[in-house]
Amino acid sequence: MNTLDVILYFVTFYLTQCVMLLAVGIGTGLATGKPIADTLDMSAAPGGDALLLVTLFSSILTILLFGQFKWSPWSRQYLRSHPWGVAFWAAMLSLGTILPSQWLLEMLQVQMPQQYEKLFEQIMGKPAGYIVIGVLVPVAEEMCFRGAILRKLLALFGERRHWIAIAVSAVIFGLFHFNVPQFIHATAIGLLLGWLYYRTGSIFPGIVFHWVNNTVAFVMFHLMPQINDGKLIDLFHGSTRMMVMGIVCSLFIFLPSLFQLNQRMRKVAGKELGDRS
Description:
Layout: H1 2-32, H2 36-39, H3 49-68, H4 84-107, H5 114-124, H6 129-157, H7 162-175, H8 180-200, H9 204-223, H10 232-235, H11 240-264
Helix pairs in contact: 1-3, 1-6, 3-6, 4-8, 4-9, 4-11, 6-7, 6-8, 6-9, 7-8, 8-9
């Protein structure tokens, strides 16, 4: 049943996006008098309001579904242990991945398709977009991909093959983003997010990691819009030396964060996974 459950969770998560896309498209079409086919083209939606609504409602629906059916079990047990040190180092770990991840994508010479860039700019350009991107999306995705999918995969593969479960869940997480750059980035951080869940049995550290990652992207989009279509070196005013120093400094954050988390996170036995949040 674990394999079927994984498929169920992924399909449900995907269908929530489709249902909300259709609902918003129909609602917008009725309100504006435009053909529904046109309103379903999110890349053509002025201002990104439609896309923002789709992401907002699909995230809320995901949280409600996975919580109501206990697909991603939730309790306060982990929070009662006061894991603030783990939360801090999870946040630092997230910060340490940002520049190296961008550098890797540039070295691989992969670029996000223009239609995805346009959609990204539409939702990030809205102040209300932070509530969706910075808060709701991290919670919804962690509930689905770690609290539900990875939990079942860990039960399927067992303790000795837990890294296979983590790797499979990371690839599934990457595939959901439907474009090569985000697939690479999401798969890489999916490995870290899976490790956080495996070691704690909770989605809380992953939500913190995810929140910091998305928050930095949102802040950079607004503070430095000139580099949104540029390269990493543009952030350092064209200086290769400064860029290399920035990446090295990121590694000096990333590696100690890994060490601290490894020391602070108590490994949770497989039978306990899913009983904590």
